[in-house]
Amino acid sequence: MKKNSTANFIKVLAFFLAVVLQGKAQTKSIILGRPTNQSVTASVLFDQPVEFYLEYGDHPNLFDHTTPTMNNVVNRPDEVDIQGLTSNTKYYYRLRHRPGTTGPFSFSPQYTFRTQRAPGSKFRFNVEADEHLYDKKGVRNMYKVTLANQAKDSADFMLSLGDIFGDDHTPLETTSADMDALHKDYLQYLTEVCHSMPFYVCLGNHEGETGYYLNQTPPNNIAVYGTNSRKYYYPNPFPNSFYTGNTTNEPYGIGLPENYYAWTWGDALFVVLDVYRDCSINDKPQNWDWTLGFTQYSWLKTTLQNSNAKFKFVFAHHTRGQGRGGIKTAKGCEWGGYSGANNTNYQFDTYRPGWGLPIHQLMKSTGVNIFFQGHDHLYAKETLDSLVYQEVPMPADSTYEIGMLANADAYTDVTLGGTGHLRVTVEENCVTVDFVRAYLPQDTVGGLHQNGEIAYSYTVGPCTQTAVTDKITAESSIALYPNPAENFVNLTVRKPSDQDQKFELVDLQGQIRKTQILPSGSTDCRFDVVHLPKGVYAVRWLDGNESVRVKMLVIK
Ligand SMILES: [Fe+2]
């Protein structure tokens, strides 16, 4: 009798659990990565036991292909390769899954991805850097706003330039479980956009994947933990017929570290560097201690020299690791070849005998257009030898000024506060880089700013399009002089207008500090800036339907 009641109880409990599992929403994540001309990889994770597969096709809502059905292990990501695709094609897909092994398969919304673009194609990609959700610099609700803005861009993929996953602040106490949790933490955010925007990560200093840490009582160190966790959750590229990169296998379960890699997409070459893994001298390398290592340097040289791409983009967390600034640090040591406080003593051949050119000169000689970096937590744009050095802002800074306050002094040209991402549009003869600002709803109440506004935009190449609503341009129809200005600035237009024109002097917060009316038929007016604090300003006016701005500096 007792045996029967126990059996009945187990049956009831099993039925109850089945009902609960059926009724409870599955928590899942899908992160796309390593897209090629004929494949993409989806990393899929559920917090409950399921059967699942992907269905896909090249027309909306017509899923005429499926991947094999798989059974998961709870909270363990499975990498699903979708192969045999056609290049330069937009694909549509859904995730089908059911709890356990019975019942109907539910389906996700329709997601999309692209295979490699053909030369001549117009496409977009996004860049963010220094998410910092593991410390107080990063605010989760702010990050969600930036990601939601990115979701509107129809970008083919996104790159993070590091300081995203790891936390090297307590290198001796951080455990493997800690690193696993830190990496897994981002799935909940990235899955909101990376189901349709493949994700690439470039390593930052706080990932802790440095040569120094790799050498500390391996495999029990944060570098081994971090590399394995990153590879476990995120499908970064490894060398194959589509990608090149690091071919050196590492021990302790790491295999290929997937830390540097390159690929071609449309008319552009993308090169992602790791400036940390070969730095093994100590935990705080200095000057010439910083190095890509000869193997990575040689790969970079070959990659850049062998590419015929019309545009070339190089990404790293920062030139030489842990300095501050763009073109200032670019002149020194392995990056620029010079030593000394003012970078006046060229010593590259002494410190790197037989290598050839320093990294900057190598990029310049091979036609690199833009070098993207993070680390300094602000928007900054400089140019050195026609090569743009682009510092990428934080996506999760709810103060909007962490980097401006801390690091703007390290830059010599455009610096802007604000939070958000960079949206890069590549066209046949033109690249447009937009800084898309993100704002929390409570910070737009006054109407001064709008979430999604373009804070700064510039182009590389002979662009013809001008359809940007709020554009700062250096190539405009007006001239400002002197610039920088101390007491006043003269404004001259090339052609007089038959109507009065209004010019506004605005500060970095978008506040109008001065207004001047240029009467019809006139070509010159003057702004008095003697009472303005020193800093970056812009002269703004309406040119047709376009709000145009030209940057100016006030000095004291
Ligand atoms: Fe950072």
Labels describing this entry:
556 residues; alpha+beta; Immunoglobulin-like; Purple Acid Phosphatase, chain A, domain 2; eight-stranded mixed β-sheet; six-stranded antiparallel β-sheet; binds fe (ii) ion
What fraction of the residues are assigned to beta strands by DSSP? 25-35%
Look up the CATH topology of the largest domain: Purple Acid Phosphatase, chain A, domain 2
> Averaging pLDDT over every residue, what do you get?
89
Radius of gyration of CA atoms, rounded to a whole number:
26 Å
Large-scale geometry = globular
CATH class value of the largest domain: Alpha Beta
Number of domains: 3
Ligand identities = fe (ii) ion
* Biggest β-sheet: strands ordered side by side in the sheet: 13-14-15-16-19-21-20-22
Structural commentary:
- It contains twelve helices and 33 strands.
- The chain has 556 residues and is an alpha+beta fold.
- The protein has three domains: 87 residues, Immunoglobulins (Immunoglobulin-like, Sandwich), CATH 2.60.40; 343 residues, Purple Acid Phosphatase, chain A, domain 2, CATH 3.60.21; 77 residues, Sandwich (Immunoglobulin-like).
- It has an eight-stranded mixed sheet, with helices on one face. Strands 3, 4, 5, 7, 8 and 9 form a six-stranded antiparallel sheet that branches.
- Helix 2 packs parallel to helix 4 and helix 3 runs parallel beside helix 6.
- The relative contact order is 0.09.
- About 5% of the residues have low confidence.
- Fe (ii) ion (FE2) binds next to loops.
